[in-house]
Amino acid sequence: MSGNFWRYLPTSGNWLSSLRAVLIFLILVISAPVLATEDEPSPLSPPDTSSPRATLQSFRENMEAAYRAFYESPDVPAPHRTAAQYRGLRTLDESQLPPADAIRLAAEAAVLLNEVLDHAVLPAYDDIPSVDELRAAAGGGPIIYRIPGTYVIITETESGPREGEFLFSTGTITHLRVLYALTAGVTPQPRSMKGLYRLFSVAPGPMIYRTWIEQLPEWAKKTILDQAVWKWFATFLVVGIWGMALTSAHRYSRSRDGNHRYWQRFVLALGGVGLTYFVLFLLEAQIILIGAVYAVTSFSFFIFIQLLGAVAILNLGNAIAQTIIASRKIDPRKIDGHLISITVNMIAWIAVLIFLTIGASQLGVPIEAVIGSLGVGGLAGALAARPTLENLIAGVTLYLDKPVRVGDFCQFEDVMGNVEEIGLRSTRIRQWDGNMISLPNSQFADFQLINYSDMKYILLRGNFGLRLDTSTDQLRFVLAKLREMLFAHPKVEWPRLTLVGLGESSLEIQLIAYVDTLDWGEYAAVREDIYMRTLETIESAGTRLAVPVRMNYVSRDAGPEEDRTAAAEAQVEAWREAGELPFPFMPAQQREDLQSTLDFPPKGSVDYVPKEVENEEKEDTGSSSRRK
What we know:
This protein has helices at about 1-5, 15-35, 50-70, 85-90, 100-120, 130-140, 170-175, 175-180, 195-200, 210-215, 230-255, 260-285, 290-325, 335-360, 365-385, 385-400, 440-445, 470-490, 520-540, 560-580, 590-595, 610-625; strands spanning about 145, 155, 165-170, 225, 225-230, 410, 415-420, 425-430, 435-440, 450, 460-465, 490-500, 505-515. The longest helix is centred in the middle third of the chain and has 37 residues, at about 290-325. It contains 22 helices and 13 strands. The strands form 4 sheets. Strands 9-8-7-6-10 form a 5-stranded antiparallel beta sheet. A hairpin with a 2-residue loop joins strand 4 (about 225) and strand 5 (about 225-230). It folds into 4 domains: about 50-200, no CATH class; about 225-385, no CATH class; about 405-455, SH3 type barrels, CATH 2.30.30; about 455-550 and about 560-610, Alpha-Beta Plaits (2-Layer Sandwich). Helix 3 crosses helix 4 (about 85-90) and helix 11 runs antiparallel to helix 12 (about 260-285). The chain is α+β, with helices and mostly antiparallel strands.
């Protein structure tokens, strides 16, 4: 191919000049688009607002570039945030517009302002005074330029990020609808875009062909509150579908059987935020609502977006807390679960306050005022919720100290029962009679609590009295035999049985022992067994329990049984002669020999196991463990 290429080159001596001509042609072809767009501004270049003259000229030229094709051709969709449109609205002072809708409201204001200027006799750009002339006329004050014959004012910005720029004043923007209404009977200037704002009340956005709207009946293109009838139908349809979708999502996310679907609620609320933004986009850029209807609709949807976002954040906090509690297998009724839940939810509420504060600032509310109101409201809320805060602090104290836990059996004052729930506000206790008592944590933490579940043994304490006519040897026999019984009992630890007093009608004996169990049912059985053996011992000594009353005997009293009295006295005399009298203390060897030698449960009971069999089982168990 190289040979064929060179064959077509000129063979004359001026072939170099021919090649030069071809190269120049190629350069011109390549640079033609660049030269053609050399006068076109960059999409990122701002408008010239260095003087009132430059501001007015920039506004008019950019509005012409942004809307002329849409105004003249039904095949051209409405411009939506194009470079020329954005440059045009940047000549307006939008500092007083809510940030959330500043661009959209400024674009609508720019269309209204352009129509007002189309009906005014504007001065030539060269006739507009320069900045120096205006500053000299202002005498050192701010420059304010009023377009002759109009209410339209261009002022110099004195502070803020746009300081030194000349912009259409906020007062002009505020009264644009009034100025637009005043132009109804005024003849527009040549080449003006009369009815451009009216066109927006009927025309759709880029996603809807204007030819479709042109084919609608005339009644569908009539306006109600500056909106075409077809836009009202489209708005009701879109909002209706949006409402049904949110209602269905709410029904799906409702709790069933006590199961809170926090993750589903979070996802659905987040989806609702996205769906609401999409609906707002349709109303703003495709259906193109304008005027007061758009302002109310946009404000309402923005508020709803804030509420849905807050709901999403709160459900996210509950979902995270629920996941942490479930992953660590924490009982949600216990204070551990409550503390995790309240901590995560407090973080979620702080995030909600920050989110709503930012949203309020987007609506134009000064953030300093929002923070100030939150501070005052927080102080008032803290004072109003003082009892709740006290209970919250007491609940944290209960969590850190852990005097009782869920399921513990405790007592305070005259209340005894099982702890069923410890929350951050209150503690619930199920009493023995089945009633539930709920106490604020601030009160519960102040009680002297007795936690029976947090002990190794259950204390058995009791007093009983013997008749005054009981002899000293009978008394020694009873004390000795009862001590043997207590030391021999397998469920009793550290027993103490002593004569503690000589009453008016009895010899007072005190029984103190620790029952080796944490089961209150078993404790009741052991206590009953000890008391039954005590009665048997007293009966075997030939005496009886004292009657705590004064009695006058009219008949002859049989008195103590002489044979049993003699047997008890003989036993005590034998101890005394052998030097084995167990007073004041029982010998240590005797205590060791008696350890767990008593049958319990007693012989004849359902669970009775003879000592011989029990010892054999213990020996078998020991030999088996040694073999292993």
